[in-house]
C-alpha cells in the first residue's frame, strides 16, 4: 500500500459516493419548480431521460474498462518512443528547418521544493494526493456536461490519467475510442503500483511546456534560465500555468491570459497550504523571451523559413494529418506537438533557388524603401500554376514574428482582376463601353454618392457621348478606373465577384468595420454558390467597393488566385507539402490536390490580354523579355487632412509557368509609405522592382523558357457595358504570338527601371521608374479618395 500523500484542494473519490444523490436532489428541486408548468414538466422529464441515458452509457464504459483491465499492461519506460525532432526539407531534399522538443533532463522529484510540486497539482489536479488515479466523479460530471451542452461542467483528467495519455501518445497516434480506454486502465494500475510522488515525477518528465520544452527541468531553463530546483513559488506557478494550454498561457504569446492562469494557480497553492503571500500581477516574475535557437534540435525558425514551417503545420492541421480534434486551435497545437516529438520528415514544395531569389529581391527593394520608411515590410509569394506548389514564400526575415505573407492587407486595384473576370464570365466583353468620367455618383452610396478616380483621371479612348467620356473596359483596367469597377461590381453583383475570387483562391476576406462594427475576418470555405456568397456579403456589410479591392486578403491567397488565371481558369489549391513520412519511412501524408475549372478558358484568355496591356503601362518587365500579365494595387491611408498618402502597395502578375505577388507596407501598423524621394509609394515602384527582379531570376534558375499566353477571343457582348459605342468604335485585335527575342540572361543583380519592350506585342507606354516623379499620375498608377471616411484603391 502506498503511503498517504498530503491532501488538499478539491475532493476526488469514487463517483458512487454522492453523484446519484446530487442528481436526485437537483431533480427534486426541479420537480418542485415546474410542478405547475406543463412545458416545465416536459423539460424535467427530458432531463431525467437524458440523465438516465448518460448513467447507462457511463456504466457501459466502466464495464468496458473493467473488461480491458486484465488485458492492459503498463508500458515500461524503455517501451516509450523517444522524442525525435521533425525535419523540413526543400523540394530538392536539402534541409530547411527542424523543430523538436528538448527532452531536458530527468529531475529527482524528491529534490524539488514542495511548492513546485504543488504548483503543478494546483494547476492540473487539486485532488491528486487524495484520488485513486481515475476521477470517476469527474468523468460523470464531464459526461453530464457533454450531454446537456454545458462545456464548463469540468473535465475528467487527473494527473495520473494525463500521464497515461502521454504514454499512449508516444506508443500510438490517432487511436480508436477502445484504445483510449486503456488510458484509464493504465492510470488505475499506476496508482496501485507507485506512490503519488513517483507518479508526479513521471508526469513532470514528460509533460510539454511550449518553447520546445518537455519536462519541468527544460521548462525552468526555457522560461527562467535556471534549474527546476531553484524556482521560486511565483516562478513555479508560471511554469505550471502553461501546462493546460502551452501556447496560449506562454506569457510571451498572451501575457494577459498567462497572468490570469498564474493567479488561478497561486490561489490553489494557497488552498493547499504552500503559499501565503498576497496575490497580485504586480508580483508576476520576469520571464525570459522565447529563443527558438534554444529549442534543443530546433533550427531555421528564426529565419524567413520559419513562416514556411508555420504554414506547413497549418496545412497538416487543416487536413487532420496528425490530429483529429474537432477544435481547430487544439488541433493545431496537437499537430505542432506531434511534429516536435514524432520524428517526421516533411518535404516541402519550396524551391531553394526561388526562395533565395525571393529573399534577395525583397531585401533589394526594402533597402531603398527603408531609407524613407524604417518600418517598411514586404511579402512575396510565388505559386506554380497547375500544381498549386508554393515555390517561394517570404513573410519577413524572422519566422517567429508576424507573417506578412499569411496575414491580410487591403489589395486595392490588384483585386480588380476578379471583378474583371466575373464580368467577362457573365458575358461582358472587355471591349464594352463604360463611363470614363473623373467621378460618378451611385445611388447606393452615402453622401453625394460619388466614386472618384485618381487625380481626376478620365478615359475617352472610345470618344464621348452626351458630354460623357466613353472608355473601353480593357482601357479602364489599364488606367485602373475605380468608377468603372464599382459599376462593374454593381452590374454583375458583389456576391458573384466574391464567389469568383473565392473560386480562384481567396480563402478569407476581412470586412472593414463599417457602421461602427469591428473589422471581421470571414472564412469563405462554405461559399459554394451565389447565395452562400451573398450571406457573407450581408454579414460583413460588403459593398460594391469589393470591385476595386477595399477588403483585405492575404498575399498567399492572392498568389493562388493569380495562379488560377495563369492556369487558364483552372484552380489548384495552394500547398506547401509534397510528402511527409514517419520515423519508419511510411508515408504519413500527401496533399489531396483539388482541381476545378472555375471560369472559362476564354475568360482567362481575355483577362490575360488585358493584363498584358496593364504590364506595359505600370510594371517593370521581366528580363529577358517574355509575355507577362500584371496588375498593380495601392490603398490610400486615411488621414484627417485628406492628404494624398498610401499605406499598402502591391504588384501582382504571372507568366504561364509562375504566378507571384508582392506586398509592401508598414510592419508595425497601417501608416503612410513613401518612395525614395518622399512621395506616396505606389505599386508600380518598389513592389514592381521586387516583382520583376524575382521573376527574372527565378524563371532563369528554374529553367522555365518563355511561353506565350493563349490568343484572346474577345467573348461577350460590347453592349453589356454602361454606354454604347460612338461611331466609329475602336477595334483592338489580339496579338499574334511573336518569337521571344534572344539576349543574355540577367545577372543576379538586375537593375530596376525596365521599360516596355519595343518588341512586345503591345508595347504601349513604357513602364514606370521609381525615379520618375511624374509616373504616379500616368495611367494605371493613380489614386482616389472616395466620398466617405474609408480609404480606397489606386492603380
TrEMBL record:
Bias type Pro residues, positions: 727-744
Q: Which stretches are transmembrane?
A: 49-71
Its recorded reaction(s) are:
Preferential cleavage: (Ac)2-L-Lys-D-Ala-|-D-Ala. Also transpeptidation of peptidyl-alanyl moieties that are N-acyl substituents of D-alanine; [GlcNAc-(1->4)-Mur2Ac(oyl-L-Ala-gamma-D-Glu-L-Lys-D-Ala-D-Ala)](n)-di-trans,octa-cis-undecaprenyl diphosphate + beta-D-GlcNAc-(1->4)-Mur2Ac(oyl-L-Ala-gamma-D-Glu-L-Lys-D-Ala-D-Ala)-di-trans,octa-cis-undecaprenyl diphosphate = [GlcNAc-(1->4)-Mur2Ac(oyl-L-Ala-gamma-D-Glu-L-Lys-D-Ala-D-Ala)](n+1)-di-trans,octa-cis-undecaprenyl diphosphate + di-trans,octa-cis-undecaprenyl diphosphate + H(+)
> Its GO biological process terms?
peptidoglycan biosynthetic process; proteolysis
**Encoded by which gene?**
ponA1
Q: Where is the composition biased (Gly residues)?
A: 1-14
Q: Where is the composition biased (Basic and acidic residues)?
A: 22-32
User: What keywords are annotated for this sequence in UniProt?
Assistant: Carboxypeptidase, Glycosyltransferase, Hydrolase, Membrane, Multifunctional enzyme, Protease, Transferase, Transmembrane, Transmembrane helix
Q: Where is the Glycosyl transferase family domain?
A: 93-269
Q: Cross-referenced InterPro entries, in alphabetical order? A: Beta-lactam/transpept-like (IPR012338), Glyco_trans_51 (IPR001264), Glycosyltr_51/Transpeptidase (IPR050396), Lysozyme-like_dom_sf (IPR023346), PBP_transglycosylase (IPR036950), PCN-bd_Tpept (IPR001460)
Species classification: Bacteria, Bacillati, Actinomycetota, Actinomycetes, Micromonosporales
Q: Tell me if Repressor is a UniProt keyword of this record.
A: no
Output compositional bias ranges, type Polar residues: 705-716, 780-795
The UniProt entry's GO CC annotations, sorted and at most eight, read: outer membrane-bounded periplasmic space
Q: Where is the Penicillin-binding protein transpeptidase domain?
A: 379-659
Q: Which GO terms describe its molecular function?
A: penicillin binding; peptidoglycan glycosyltransferase activity; serine-type D-Ala-D-Ala carboxypeptidase activity
Q: What superkingdom does the record give?
A: Bacteria
Q: Can the keyword rRNA processing be found in this entry's annotation?
A: no
What is the protein name stated in its UniProt record? Penicillin-binding protein 1A
Pfam families reported in the protein's UniProt record: Transgly (PF00912), Transpeptidase (PF00905)
Q: Enumerate the PANTHER family for this protein.
A: BINDING PROTEIN TRANSPEPTIDASE, PUTATIVE-RELATED (PTHR32282), PENICILLIN-BINDING PROTEIN 1A (PTHR32282:SF34)
Amino acid at each position: 500500500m502506498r503511503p498517504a500523500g498530503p491532501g488538499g484542494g478539491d475532493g476526488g473519490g469514487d463517483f458512487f459516493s454522492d453523484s446519484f444523490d446530487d442528481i436526485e436532489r437537483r431533480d427534486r428541486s426541479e420537480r418542485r419548480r415546474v410542478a405547475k408548468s406543463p412545458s416545465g414538466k416536459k423539460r424535467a422529464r427530458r432531463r431525467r431521460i437524458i440523465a438516465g441515458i448518460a448513467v447507462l452509457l457511463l456504466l457501459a464504459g466502466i464495464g468496458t474498462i473493467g473488461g480491458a483491465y486484465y488485458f492492459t499492461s503498463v508500458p515500461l519506460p524503455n517501451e516509450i518512443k523517444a522524442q525525435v525532432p521533425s525535419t523540413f526539407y526543400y523540394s530538392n531534399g536539402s534541409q530547411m528547418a527542424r523543430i523538436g522538443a528538448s527532452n531536458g533532463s530527468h529531475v529527482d522529484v524528491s529534490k524539488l521544493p514542495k511548492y513546485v510540486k504543488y504548483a503543478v497539482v494546483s494547476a492540473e489536479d487539486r485532488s491528486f494526493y487524495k484520488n485513486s488515479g481515475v476521477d470517476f466523479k469527474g468523468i460523470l460530471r464531464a459526461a453530464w456536461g457533454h450531454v446537456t451542452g454545458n462545456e464548463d461542467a469540468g473535465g475528467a483528467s487527473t494527473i495520473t490519467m494525463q500521464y497515461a495519455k502521454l504514454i499512449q501518445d508516444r506508443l500510438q497516434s490517432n487511436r480508436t475510442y477502445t484504445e483510449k480506454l486503456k488510458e484509464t486502465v493504465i492510470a488505475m494500475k499506476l496508482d496501485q503500483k507507485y506512490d503519488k510522488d513517483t507518479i508526479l515525477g513521471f508526469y513532470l518528465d514528460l509533460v510539454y511546456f511550449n518553447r520546445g520544452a518537455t519536462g519541468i527541468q527544460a521548462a525552468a531553463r526555457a522560461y527562467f534560465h535556471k534549474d527546476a530546483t531553484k524556482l521560486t513559488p511565483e516562478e513555479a506557478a508560471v511554469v505550471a500555468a502553461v501546462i493546460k494550454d502551452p501556447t496560449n498561457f506562454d506569457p510571451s504569446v498572451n501575457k494577459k491570459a498567462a497572468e490570469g492562469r498564474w493567479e488561478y494557480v497561486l490561489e490553489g497553492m494557497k488552498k493547499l497550504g504552500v503559499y501565503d503571500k498576497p496575490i497580485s500581477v504586480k508580483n508576476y516574475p520576469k520571464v525570459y523571451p522565447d529563443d527558438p535557437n534554444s529549442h534543443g534540435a530546433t533550427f531555421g525558425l528564426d529565419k524567413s523559413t520559419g513562416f514556411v514551417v508555420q504554414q506547413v503545420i497549418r496545412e497538416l492541421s487543416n487536413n487532420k494529418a496528425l490530429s483529429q480534434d474537432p477544435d481547430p486551435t487544439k488541433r493545431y497545437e496537437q499537430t505542432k506537438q506531434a511534429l516536435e516529438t514524432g520524428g517526421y520528415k516533411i518535404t516541402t514544395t519550396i524551391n531553394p533557388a526561388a526562395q533565395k531569389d525571393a529573399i534577395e529581391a525583397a531585401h533589394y527593394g526594402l533597402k531603398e524603401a527603408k531609407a524613407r520608411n524604417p518600418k517598411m515590410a514586404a511579402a512575396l509569394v510565388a505559386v506554380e500554376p497547375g500544381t498549386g506548389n508554393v515555390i517561394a514564400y517570404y513573410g519577413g526575415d524572422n519566422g517567429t514574428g508576424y507573417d506578412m505573407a499569411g496575414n491580410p492587407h487591403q489589395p486595392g486595384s490588384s483585386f480588380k482582376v476578379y471583378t474583371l473576370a466575373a464580368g467577362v464570365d457573365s458575358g461582358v466583353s472587355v471591349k464594352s463601353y463604360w463611363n470614363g468620367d473623373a467621378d460618378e455618383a451611385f445611388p447606393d452610396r452615402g453622401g453625394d454618392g460619388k466614386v472618384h478616380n485618381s487625380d481626376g483621371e478620365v478615359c475617352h479612348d472610345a470618344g464621348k457621348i452626351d458630354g460623357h467620356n466613353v472608355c473601353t473596359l480593357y482601357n479602364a483596367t489599364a488606367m485602373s478606373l475605380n468608377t468603372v469597377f464599382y459599376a462593374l461590381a454593381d452590374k454583375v453583383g458583389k456576391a458573384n465577384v466574391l464567389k469568383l475570387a473565392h473560386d480562384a483562391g481567396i480563402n478569407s476576406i476581412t470586412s472593414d468595420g463599417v457602421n461602427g462594427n469591428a473589422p471581421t475576418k470571414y472564412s469563405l470555405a462554405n461559399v459554394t454558390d451565389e447565395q452562400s456568397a451573398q450571406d457573407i456579403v450581408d454579414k460583413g456589410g460588403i459593398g460594391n467597393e469589393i470591385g476595386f479591392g477595399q477588403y483585405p486578403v492575404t498575399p498567399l491567397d492572392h498568389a493562388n488566385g493569380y495562379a488560377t488565371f495563369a492556369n487558364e481558369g483552372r484552380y489548384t489549391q495552394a500547398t506547401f507539402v509534397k510528402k511527409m513520412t514517419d520515423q519508419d519511412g511510411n508515408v504519413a501524408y500527401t496533399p489531396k490536390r483539388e482541381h476545378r475549372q472555375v471560369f472559362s478558358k476564354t475568360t482567362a484568355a481575355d483577362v490575360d490580354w488585358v493584363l498584358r496591356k496593364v504590364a506595359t503601362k505600370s510594371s517593370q518587365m521581366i528580363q529577358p523579355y517574355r509575355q507577362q500579365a500584371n496588375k498593380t494595387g495601392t490603398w490610400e491611408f486615411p488621414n484627417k487632412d485628406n492628404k494624398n498618402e498610401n499605406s499598402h502597395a502591391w504588384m501582382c502578375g504571372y507568366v504561364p509557368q509562375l504566378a507571384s505577388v508582392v506586398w509592401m507596407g508598414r510592419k508595425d501598423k497601417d501608416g503612410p509609405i513613401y518612395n525614395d524621394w518622399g512621395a506616396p509609394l505606389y505599386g508600380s515602384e518598389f513592389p514592381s522592382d521586387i516583382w520583376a527582379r524575382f521573376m527574372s531570376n527565378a524563371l532563369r534558375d528554374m529553367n522555365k523558357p518563355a511561353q506565350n499566353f493563349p490568343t484572346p477571343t474577345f467573348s461577350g457582348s460590347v453592349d453589356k457595358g454602361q454606354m454604347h459605342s460612338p461611331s466609329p468604335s475602336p477595334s483592338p485585335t489580339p496579338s499574334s504570338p511573336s518569337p521571344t527575342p534572344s539576349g543574355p540572361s540577367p545577372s543576379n543583380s538586375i537593375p530596376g527601371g525596365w521599360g516596355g519592350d519595343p518588341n512586345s506585342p503591345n508595347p504601349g507606354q513604357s513602364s514606370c521608374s521609381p525615379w520618375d516623379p511624374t509616373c504616379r499620375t500616368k495611367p494605371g498608377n493613380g489614386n482616389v479618395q472616395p466620398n466617405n471616411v474609408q480609404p480606397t484603391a489606386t492603380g
